[in-house]
Design brief:
By secondary structure, this protein is an all-alpha fold. The protein contains 13 helices and 2 strands; from the N terminus they run H-H-H-H-H-E-H-H-H-H-H-E-H-H-H.
């Protein structure tokens, strides 16, 4: 009888996990259908292209956040880092160009590397380290310009994001998805990607295999910074300026997208393709709510509830596992 009860509970657990797997896709389709009914122009190609354009920078920042989360860590500095990369690069290269592009990416890379090194060397929770570094990056971005944006008037630089290599599709979408595809390959087809996921699943087991887990934790945070650096170039090019404070909104939306997409906040499960679904879901939701006249306050309340619900669902298998162990 006891074994039968355990089997039944296990089957229920599988059903719950299957639901968690498909739920982001169901939400994505559901949101599209609801807003298409409430506001028919929502489903037009022009609006969908707009959603993808807004999603492009968001996708790279969220992809960067995914790597630490896959390891059971978190990077709370991504939003501030986005602004600091853009501001530092534009401060030294106010006309944009290759110099700004390279410097922004290098600043992002080094910022992520510093985050990773501090987490490993100080042996502090990533939450604490990256929260502290968030204030450092905010200080850098606002300190260089007294909180003002830096205007970048360069048509060639603007073309990087606003031009159209393919008619009807802004370049920012193309570049973002090319970069995203490269990191999807890294996460799914390379040793680095597999170890990052394995460490998030069971770090002690990976250590017993003789693998330096600290090395891969540093790599995960470095990937985060690198992707944010690239995102800062696309954002500055698209806006025609380096934003001193625009990165603030990215942190909250990024965390929601990663978790709602299906990546476990505990680490060990999920991935970049799930984050893509989360990004599209949040971008579509924001766009639809704006079109029907909803205020930003209502949107924030709804997203907060969505985040709590998503984390609760993701935690179900962990609670179920603990329940089985105590029986």
């Amino acid at each position: 009888m006891r074994n039968l009860a355990l089997k039944n509970l296990f089957k229920k657990g599988l059903k719950a996990e299957n639901l968690i797997e498909v739920l982001p896709y169901l939400l994505l389709v559901g949101i599209f259908v609801v807003f298409a009914i409430l506001y028919p122009p929502f489903s037009r190609i022009r609006n969908i292209t707009g959603i993808l354009t807004v999603s492009s920078v968001f996708l790279l920042v969220a992809a960067g956040e995914t790597f630490p989360i896959l390891m059971g860590s978190i990077d709370l500095s991504v939003g501030a880092m986005l602004s600091s990369c853009a501001i530092v690069a534009a401060y030294f290269f106010p006309q944009g160009g290759l110099g700004m592009i390279v410097l922004a990416i290098v600043v992002g890379f080094l910022s992520g590397l510093i985050n990773g090194l501090l987490v490993v060397l100080l042996k502090l929770p990533s939450f604490i380290v990256t929260l502290a570094m968030m204030y450092v990056y905010v200080g850098i971005a606002t300190g260089l310009t007294n909180g003002y944006n830096i205007s970048i008037r360069n048509r060639d630089f603007a073309w990087i994001s606003t031009g159209q290599m393919i008619e009807g599709i802004p370049n920012v979408i193309i570049w973002a998805f090319i970069v995203f595809a490269v990191f999807v390959f890294i996460s799914r087809k390379t040793v680095v990607g597999r170890y990052i996921l394995a460490i998030g699943s069971n770090e002690e087991s990976v250590k017993k295999m003789g693998i330096n887990t600290n090395k891969y934790r540093i790599i995960a945070f470095t990937f985060s910074g690198l992707l944010v650096g690239i995102a800062s170039v696309l954002l500055s090019s698209y806006l025609g300026m380096a934003p001193a404070r625009l990165g603030d909104k990215y942190l909250f939306n990024t965390l929601i997208a990663v978790v709602v997409g299906g990546t476990s906040i505990m680490g060990g499960s999920g991935g970049l393709l799930k984050t893509l679904i989360g990004v599209l879901l949040i971008s579509m939701f924001d766009n639809g709510m704006s079109l029907i006249g909803s205020t930003s306050n209502v949107q924030n309340i709804a997203k907060g509830i969505l985040l709590i619900a998503a984390i609760s669902l993701v935690m179900l298998p962990h609670r179920r596992g603990r329940l089985l162990l105590t029986k």
